[in-house]
Amino acid sequence: MTDTNLSAVLYKVQHLRLVDRPIPEPKQGEVQISMRTVGICGSDVHYWHSGAIGHFVVKAPMLLGHECAGVVSKVGEGVTNLKEGDRVAIEPGVPCRQCELCKDGRYNLCPDVFFLATPPDSGALARYHTHAADFVFKLPDNVSFEEGSMIEPLSVGLHACRRAGVKLGGRVMVCGAGPIGLCAMLCAKAMGAAGVCMTDIDPKRLEFARKVGATSTVLVDTKDVEEVAAKVRVALGGAPDFSIEASGAQFCVELGVVTTKTGGTFVVVGHGPTHVQIPIVNTVAREIAIKGSFRYVNTWPAAIAMISSGKINVKPLVTHRFQLEETMDAFNTAKSGVGVKVMINCERQ
Ligand code: 572
Ligand code: ZN
Question: From the CA of 79, how far away is ligand 2's center (Å)?
């Protein structure tokens, strides 16, 4: 039977509809993927509900979804790394491969990147999607499609830990116990951190964080940064060598600077307000290195290997599951903030 391409199309703000679209054919260097799982990211919810993130504004109909795994269903001309039937995970950002940053190996910073579900670029929440074959990675048999989808948020966490330079025996603070913070915590532990302390304003999220591996947690229940910093130092047995901000909160930017060990590194992943205040004298006088971390670069092979070898377990992070036909329920669940990762199964039942 010929399949149809049921797709979750965002027409404009708050107008998300399931519609049948033509099945895309792979062009030269591309593969067609029969999608199996797509995780919902905070940005998908944001584009759906608010229509924009910063100056990225939904202006034309676009598909959502950029955390994806599936099966190669067709191979375009010139593709040699994949074949029909391969189980794969998709890296959603395809850079130009030509610019200085791409050539320098920092392709996550390419100004001409195509990135799934970031306007004007369409996403992959559909039965079928075509993608550049060099940004599609084979999954070992023991890695599930859901784990394949989780490689995307795991990659954000891995890149942040690489930017921080997390080392064996290091103490790490991660602010924000959402999917990205949890993935950063899992990576920090796998990279040899002696302790990872997570902070959040929600005690339930902290309880979940401890369940999946955080060695300690600190509830942010005060506006006093010094008070929280002191609790984190006690929890870790000393100031963190590395801090990762994954909450987007102004408070945590200040917390990161104040709490990090003198001479340590503070990496900011979370996107909050466009401008935040930092205690600059503290930063300068204690040589705190503040670094940005943008998406990821060259993370899929390592993330796949870490999941396949059992060194990182992302399975518990998937808390809710829906079929593609139930996309609206899935988005409402993600928006409600319950659980951690909402996963959509795109395979026709
Ligand atoms: O999984 C990658 C990812 N990156 C996000 C958000 C959600 N998921 N970013 C935050 C927003 N920026 S952006 O540059 N932008 C809207 C394109 O402000 C990208 C990274
Ligand atoms: Zn995302």
Answer: 27
pLDDT tens for each residue of 120-145: 999 999 999 999 999 999 999 999 99
Q: How many CB atoms lie within 10 A of CB 338?
A: 11
C-alpha 293 to ligand 1 mean position (Å): 11
Pocket lining: 53 vs ligand 1, CB cutoff 6 Å: yes
Q: Is the CB of 114 under 6 A from ligand 1?
A: no
Q: Which CATH class is domain 157-292?
A: alpha beta
- Distances from the Cα of 239 to the Cα of 17, 127, 170, 215, angstroms: 49, 48, 10, 15
Of ligand 1's listed atoms, the one at least distance from the Cα of 66 is 1
- Please give the biggest Cα pair distance in the chain: 68
**CATH 3.90.180.10 spans which residues of the chain?**
6-138+314-345
- 81 contact partners, CB below 8 Å, separation of at least 6: 133, 134, 136, 138
What is the Å distance from ligand 2's center to 103 Cα?
24
Topology at the third CATH level for domain 6-138+314-345: Quinone Oxidoreductase; Chain A, domain 1 (3.90.180)
Ligand 1 near 43 CB (within 6 A): yes
271 pLDDT exceeds 90? no
Mean pLDDT computed over every residue of the chain = 97
Determine the pLDDT at residue 272: 87
